[in-house]
Amino acid sequence: MSVGIVEPVPDALHLLLRRAVLELAESERRRRFPPQLHAGTPGGSQVALQPVGDPTEDAALRVDIVEALVRRVTPSPERPLVWLARPGTLDLQDQDLHWLAAAAAAAGELDVGLRMVVVNRRSWRDPRTGVGREWLRLRRRS
To answer: pLDDT by residue (tens digit) across 9-21?
Structure first.
């Protein structure tokens, strides 16, 4: 029961996704860094995992990882958020599709509506629908 993000993006979701991008921009200064999978609420209760090795080889392992992360956070009553933070542009990559499939399978097994996005230091994108946002200079709001 994975849920794609469509236009218009609700204000509350837009702010959460902006926060995920801002957190990555503030915490990761390297040009190249290993991808990290997050679950929960940006700026709130969340867990992250930097997969060791290459979990893209094992679909069942990816599903187990997403399920474990979602179970470890106290998800909002509506829909937990899963995001893959990685370097580079947000052009669709194989790893995005692998984690999207894992999130969809985990959502079905957990019976929750999961939203999954890919995040870099300047933008976010839903790999399912292509909806996303990009900022040239993202700053923390006062």
So the answer is: 999 999 999 999 9
